[in-house]
Amino acid sequence: MTTVARKRFYKTAAAVETDGGGFRIELDGRAVRTPAGRSFVLAARALADAVAAEWAAQEDDILPASMPMTQLAYTALDHVASNRAAVIEQVVKYGETDLLCYRAEAPPELVEQQARAWQPLLDWLREAHGVALVVTEGITPVAQSADVAEGLTRAVEPLDDLVLTALASAVHSSGSVVIGLAMLAGRLDAEQAFEVSQLDETHQISQWGEDHEAMARRDFLRAELGAAARFFELAR
Question: Which of 27, 56, 78, 170 has a CA 20 to 30 Å removed from the CA of 134?
Fold first, then answer.
């Protein structure tokens, strides 16, 4: 992703329909290109409008951190499109160590919270995608069936590059391919995904309080999941 700020150099930003289909982003009537020099054309009008709105909202400086739809679109076009197999493999690999499979042994209230929040998602994954993950207590790695990787691959492979990009972001931010797929299916919204993925941390905060570093990390993860959820909606 692009992270370096630069001065705003344009007056207008717009999404313009192309002759070949799709919508390109234009600044002062000139087509924007991705950081890798690719054509910045998006298939979904809603997503292109959202990207153009991010460019239009910039003030004296262009701040990439304030442009999550643009950054995810760049990632899809510059990285995911040419590395689909590797990205799919990375997403599927989370099934080997998925957050929802590693339960606390104590205290009882956390054990109950995890079971109440996590087990229905694992049950949904089994029903929706035929993937049954093994659950364990503690942090010692537990082996998953070879069927898990096959089932998750079947779920992920049909996704287009844009949706796959958002899924990979959601999975990475939550630590769970189950949570990512549940967001994609509309079973979890961004805030629910954040809460479910942060159960352990939230419990620790309730016991010991929250420091500034932990707060910053949680804010970052909440924003990442929010961006992924919005991108899912706009890219369809």
Answer: 170
